[in-house]
Structures are given as C-alpha cells and as structure tokens.
C-alpha cells in the first residue's frame, strides 16, 4: 500500500470513529445542561489541546531534523571516502590502487548489504567496519616521502576519521531510532482526549458538531501518521536512499 493510501486510511478511520462517537453522544446523551458546560469545557479543551499541539509539534520537528541530518550525514560519509581515495592517489604505488579497491568494496557493501537492513530498522552487522579497518591500515602503512606526500597522507587519515564518525551516526540512526513507547502513549491518549472533549459542548446542531469533531480527529491522525512515517529516516515517508554512495561509486569509476 502506498504512503498516500495509508495516510488517507488513517485520516478516514479517525474521522469516521469521531463522527460515530459524536453522533451517539448527541443522540443517546442528555442535552440538558450541556450548553452550561461550554465555559468550563472550553477552558479544559484549550489547555489540553494546547499541550497536545506543543508535544506533536516538538516530536514532528525533532524527527524532521533527524531525517535531514541523516541525509546530509550520508553525503558527508560518501564525500569523505572519495576524498580519502583521491588523497591516497598521490602516494607511491600500490597504495592508491589498494585504497581505491577497498573504498569501492566498502561502498558496494553499504549499498548492497547494509541499506536493505537499515530500511527494515535492523542492526547493521555486516563486514563494513572490517573493510574500513583494512582501508585505515592500508593508509597508515603507506610510505610517504617528502612534505607533500606526508600532507596527503595526513589528509587521508583525517577524511577517514570523518567516514568512521558519519558511519557510526548512520547505523545508529537506523537501529536506535523512533519514538519511545511512553511518548506514543502521550501522543495517542492526548489526541483521543482532544477529540472527546468537544462532545461536552452544547449549542451546536448535530451535523456541524459531527463535522467539527471528525475534522479535528482527521487532522490529529494526519500528524500522528507523519510522526509514524518519520521514525526511521531510511524507510517510510522519509525514505533516504543510497544515492550518496552510488554517487561515490560513480566518482571512483565504478558506476
């Protein structure tokens, strides 16, 4: 099922449920005294809905920032790896060819083995770390004669450190991610309370009342759906692909 159909299903389900509850409350409940509840119910609704809006906005913005950081981090990792290969090319043979081969092998591992696991939210346990360690050993053991070659070797080591750092962030985001259970409890219960409270109001006709509560429920369901989709930056609505690493393979002549 596409993300658009899934989102529409969330919204319609919440709207229909809220409409049914609103209809039953108006038809089966006691109308007497309900209009006098408007002031008290309005104050409670304002407080609850305000708090719920703040929590929803905070969680949604945090996840959006996480997705943005994950996308930029993938490009930083790929660019740093390409910089390592370019820097090592200036060192005596066969270090350049060895480093390029190890870099290509690492990129192919990320694209072919690690990315499908990350999309499922699994823990990356493939040979990626070992391949980086072999690349690091090749750079450290490379001979460097003169100030220029020493500078290029230092640059390669610096860029390789960036690769390690960004890789750690990437695999951590894919595995240790999402909204914890207690936050989901707050989001869902808070949304339910926000939808139920308007049923205490009086004075509106049945049809406008059903439209109001169903619209509110649909809007809250849409926000919850967005939060659900943004939990894993590498799947769902965010769906960060391995474009950065495919670009790196192309730059290294392995497209």
Offer a quick outline of the entry.
InterPro entries: DUF4239. This protein has eight helices and no strands.
Characterization of this structure:
It is a single chain. The chain contains 8 helices and no strands. The chain has helices spanning 3-28, 38-88, 95-119, 128-140, 147-175, 181-196, 206-229, 243-251. The protein has one domain. The model has no long low-confidence stretch (mean pLDDT 87). The chain has 255 residues and is mainly α. It is elongated, with a radius of gyration of 27 Å. The longest helix has 51 residues, at 38-88.
Low confidence ranges = none
Count of strand segments: 0
Percentage beta strand: under 5%
The count of domains is 1
Estimate percent helicity: over 70%
Bulk shape: elongated
Secondary structure blueprint with pairings:
Elements: H1 3-28, H2 38-88, H3 95-119, H4 128-140, H5 147-175, H6 181-196, H7 206-229, H8 243-251
Please tag this protein with its features:
255 residues; mainly alpha; 0% strand; single chain
């Amino acid at each position: 099922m596409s993300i658009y159909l899934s989102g529409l299903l969330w919204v319609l389900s919440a709207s229909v449920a809220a409409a049914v509850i609103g209809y039953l409350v108006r038809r089966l409940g006691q109308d007497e005294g309900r209009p006098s509840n408007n002031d008290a119910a309005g104050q409670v609704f304002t407080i609850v809905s305000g708090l719920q809006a703040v929590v929803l906005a905070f969680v949604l913005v945090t996840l959006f920032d996480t997705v943005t950081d994950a996308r930029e981090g993938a490009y930083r990792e790929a660019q740093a790896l390409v910089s390592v290969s370019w820097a090592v090319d200036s060192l005596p043979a066969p270090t350049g060819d060895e480093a390029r081969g190890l870099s290509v092998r690492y990129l192919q591992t990320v694209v072919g083995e690690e990315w499908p696991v990350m999309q499922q939210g699994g823990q990356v346990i493939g040979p990626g770390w070992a391949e980086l360690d072999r690349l690091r050993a090749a750079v450290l053991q490379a001979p460097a004669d003169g100030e220029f070659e020493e500078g290029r070797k230092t640059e390669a080591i610096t860029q390789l450190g960036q690769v390690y750092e960004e890789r750690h962030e990437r695999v951590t985001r894919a595995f240790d991610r999402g909204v914890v259970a207690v936050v989901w409890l707050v989001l869902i219960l808070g949304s339910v309370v926000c939808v139920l409270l308007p049923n205490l109001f009086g004075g509106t006709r049945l049809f406008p009342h059903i439209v109001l509560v169903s619209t509110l429920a649909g809007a809250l369901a849409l926000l919850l759906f967005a939060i659900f989709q943004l939990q894993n930056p590498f799947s769902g609505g965010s769906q960060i692909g391995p474009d950065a690493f495919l670009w790196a393979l192309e730059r290294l002549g392995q497209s």
